[in-house]
Known about the structure:
Blueprint: H1 25-37, E1 40-44, H2 51-66, E2 81-85, H3 95-102, H4 113-121, E3 126-131, H5 137-150, E4 154-160, E5 169-173, H6 179-193, H7 201-213, H8 218-227, H9 233-248, H10 257-271, H11 274-283, H12 292-299, H13 309-318, E6 323-327, E7 330-334, H14 337-349, H15 353-374, H16 380-403, H17 408-417, H18 419-424, H19 428-441, H20 451-467, H21 471-488, H22 491-507, H23 511-528, H24 533-548, H25 552-569, H26 573-588, H27 592-608, H28 612-628, H29 632-649, H30 657-674, H31 676-687, H32 691-700
Parallel strand pairs: 1-4, 1-5, 2-3, 3-4
Antiparallel strand pairs: 6-7
Helix pairs in contact: 1-2, 3-4, 4-5, 6-7, 6-8, 7-9, 8-10, 9-10, 11-13, 11-14, 12-15, 15-16, 15-17, 16-17, 17-19, 17-20, 19-20, 20-21, 20-22, 21-22, 22-23, 22-24, 23-24, 24-25, 24-26, 25-26, 26-27, 26-28, 27-28, 28-29, 28-30, 29-30, 29-31, 30-31
Amino acid sequence: MRSGPIPRRTPGNLPSDLSGFVGRAGELAELGRLLDSSRLVTVTGAGGVGKTRLVLAAARAAADAAAGPADPAQERYCDGVWLAELASVRDPALLELTLAEALGLTDHTTRPTRTVLAEHLAERRLLLVLDGFEQLVDETADLVRDLLRRSPGLRVLAAGRRPLTLDGELSWPLAPLDPEEALALLIERTSAADPAFALTEANRTALAELCARLDGLPLALELAAGRLRTLSPAQVLSRLEDRFALLTGGSRGALPRHRALRTAIGWSHELCTAGERLLWARLSVFAGQFDLDAAEYVCAGPDLPVDSVLDLVGELLGQSLLVREETAAGVRYRMLESVRIYGAGWLESLGDARRLRRRHRDWYMGLATWCELDWFSPRQEEVAALVEAELPNLRLALECCLDEPEETHLGQYLAGTLWFYWAGCGRLTEGRHWLDRTLEDGLGLAGSEYESSRLKALWVLGYVAALQGDSVASMSALYECRDGAARSENRVAGAYAVHRMGCLALVSDDMARAGELLGSALERYREAGELNSNVLMCQVELAMALAFQGDLAGALSLCREVRDICEERGERWTKAYALYVLAYAELDAGGTAEARRLLAECVAINHTFRDRVGLVLAVELLALVTVTEGHPAEAAVLQGAAEPLWDGVGMRLFGSGYFNAPRLMCQERAGELLGTERYASCARHGRALSLDGLVERALRGPEPAPAAGPLPRPRGGSDRPMARPGTSTAAGATGVKNRKPAGSPEGEPAG
């Protein structure tokens, strides 16, 4: 094992500050002091006053302090600083799930998400930042109260227009910027849009007056900065003064903050062209980010030609009404929440909101359909990133499908079409939520013209529930799908139902039945002309069933064929599972170097797609490879690092003797070679690794073992990583040939 202290970890998910933070030095210091004295601090204030920017700046300061030299005073956030953005969450059932995602938790079990959160936070010391909870204030307050009670090392920094009203909460109203800070912000933002702009004696008075008229509200100042690109400060001030007079009866006294903000947004709205105002209103139907293609489809019409949308987006960007962001899914845009709400009000007043919501839904149904097809292609990773970025909009589309009972079949289709995301990208819990909802709300659609959508949702539900270890719900959905497919003569749905029944048998250790069902499903797929990631996964699962029963030759043949097809099509997700089986066969044949190479690729792919099921299986088998190579300490580290992953994967599912065999065998071998105390120390080291740290370590491989003589041979046990349950001491099995670990001389006695 590597020597030296464990590096200080500074996990978290805070975004970088692309435009810089201006002023607020006093507020930042005060906020830090408040967090020292209270476990819950809520920064309150009107929309646009700068709550989000301030709490993010405070959070970054806390993260920087935690990353500094080891100091007991900085241990408060040793487990990181995490941001949960809640503004786009409308469904209370998704609140806890959104928080879990923000913390990087992936849980494949059927445990309540609140339980998962509480267990994760129970022994951790971290700062949780909550932003935009107003639409779910009661639910957020209940969740925060529960987590704080059960997690003594947790502190919460929240930003909202109102406090959570909890015992022990420090509610801190945020004032607008002072005159100097407001002027500095206005100049900084204007200069960013127009490098030729500068503060001069000629424009200082007008700019200072503009800051005063906007009450020092950061959002209002940024909107004004967008206008200074085309108007002089005096012109901006003149137009704004007219707007104030209209709304306040000519009063030139101090204005309420919310009115100043609404005035600034309304003034920007008035200065927009008719086309810009119309696009602004229609863009308000998006949740979170969106791209240009979506904007063109959803917003264009006879009164807004599609070829005008790009130019209009550019104009809204120039006026700071839109924000452009670079993401893993490409260039995307978003509206600040106050601006979006203003636009949504106009859309309602135009009587066009329902039509636009449906166009929005239709676009995202089409996007999901395209992504499902493109999942079986070289663009698989891009598809995963795109769906991740579009999740708030996909949620909105699913809600729209459920708004009208006669359109529930659209929700079933959409929830079913996203199977690759639910199962392949670590989103089982959310997938189960939507599948249950669409099927519950659409019970009356059985046997209707929309039966195919219902059947798809059923087999996907059966698949998701099986991976969660909920065999009762899985079997119920799959039998219903199979019977419905037979009645409607839907051969494809029937094949999927039989396939997932085989998958359920596989994870339930019924290998004979799994082989029978999976083989039948493959025949059905061939007859229907179906070929995609699901079909190839069926072939890999059949190979697993054969390997578990000792037919390595048959398993190898199937998985080599899958690997070749995946490489030809650019498919990587299913390929990772084929590599897992191939690595098992290599290890069984003594090829530890090739097994390591295959598993390293498997780990990298599963980590890319956030597939914790595949990742934990690969890490456990890699640990067995590692101890076989003669590195028991490193194997123990990997074993320890994998333990937290098992909590999210679900012990009920992987209590399987077959799937557990590599872990138990490695634990037995490494424990005998190291001794109980050192094994436990190495495992603790592994548990301290972050997920990224685990993956980096697994890919790097062990350092060369020191030349300190041969390692003793472990006593008893089986060398087969996946022996049949009931036949090994480690995995429950005996009587299988023993193979010595690397470095053990021939003939050395056991022990």
